[in-house]
Write a structure and sequence with these properties.
The protein contains one helix and 22 strands. It is mainly β and 272 residues long. A hairpin with an 8-residue loop joins strand 17 (189-198) and strand 18 (207-217).
């Protein structure tokens, strides 16, 4: 187990159920799984801005109607937000251009259907909770907290229109396997978060038993390291903050599964 340092860094009022984040140039972009806003937080000024993704955007959207944005990643000047795909209402992709503030929406039902077929997943078991783009390929991280308990990584090759799926097996707590909640690419390694939640549903929440941070090989998806960083927090968002020759710093957010519009941002330091 790697040594680590995890501590709360600051709290943001106005965001609840944080599910993903991207750090860039003193700005923190945050998504919430029950909101149709994209949030921009200026760390230095301690100011929060809300970006409408749809007309009449809302917060604390009822579970049956929410878009369930669980993944956010940066590609060039654009931020991409993906719904989890766990219901038919959660098949949206949003592209936000940080240069001209334009928002584009796309229905990705066809792609999500192909992902399910590739991994032999039931309609209710697809649950994407991490995504990034690299070398003309989209990487999607399947959270195996459904009845089929299938963690894994989808790779969608845009040029070849090809999809590959690789199962990934993670540690267990009380005989419940950890499941992906986010993933990012740092140079040639994948860093990911995984939570242990006492549920067999992609829809219903369960008791939190712990959260891990781990590392996968980009080429083989072999598990290179994994460390339990909390036995009570459900960390769902991961972004790189700073990297030196000695350590790597991440910012994390957690989904507290409540309607409270308060979010704590944590800093996690891992030795290199």
């Amino acid at each position: 187990m790697k040594q680590f340092n995890l501590q709360p860094l600051f709290q943001i009022s106005g965001i609840g159920s944080a599910s993903g984040l991207v750090y860039q140039d003193n700005l923190l972009y945050i998504i919430s799984d029950n909101s149709s806003y994209l949030y921009e937080y200026n760390i230095q000024e301690k100011k929060l801005y809300k970006i409408e993704l749809f007309e009449n955007s809302q917060e604390n959207i009822p579970k049956a109607n929410k878009f369930d944005f669980e993944s956010i990643t940066k590609k060039g000047n654009k931020l991409y937000l993906f719904g989890s795909g766990s219901t038919s209402k959660r098949n949206k992709r949003i592209c936000y251009n940080t240069k001209n503030s334009t928002v584009k929406e796309k229905d990705v039902t066809h792609l999500y259907t192909r992902l399910k077929h590739k991994a032999f997943l039931n309609d209710s078991d697809l649950n994407l909770e991490g995504a990034f783009y690299n070398d003309y390929k989209w990487y999607f991280f399947q959270r195996g907290n459904g009845s089929q308990s299938q963690n894994g990584v989808f790779v969608f090759n845009k040029e070849k229109k090809d999809i590959q799926f690789t199962p990934v097996f993670l540690p267990k707590i009380q005989n419940i396997e950890a499941t992906f909640t986010d993933a990012i690419l740092v140079e040639n390694q994948i860093y990911f978060l995984a939570a242990v939640e006492n549920t067999i549903s992609t829809y219903d929440d369960g008791e939190i038993l712990g959260s891990y941070i781990g590392c996968l090989s980009l080429d083989t998806f072999k598990l290179e390291s994994i460390t339990l960083i909390s036995d009570e927090n459900k960390f769902e968002g991961l972004t790189i903050f700073k990297k030196t020759n000695h350590d790597i710093e991440f910012l994390l957010c957690e989904d507290n599964d409540t309607e409270s519009l308060e979010t704590v941002i944590y800093k996690l330091i891992l030795p290199q």
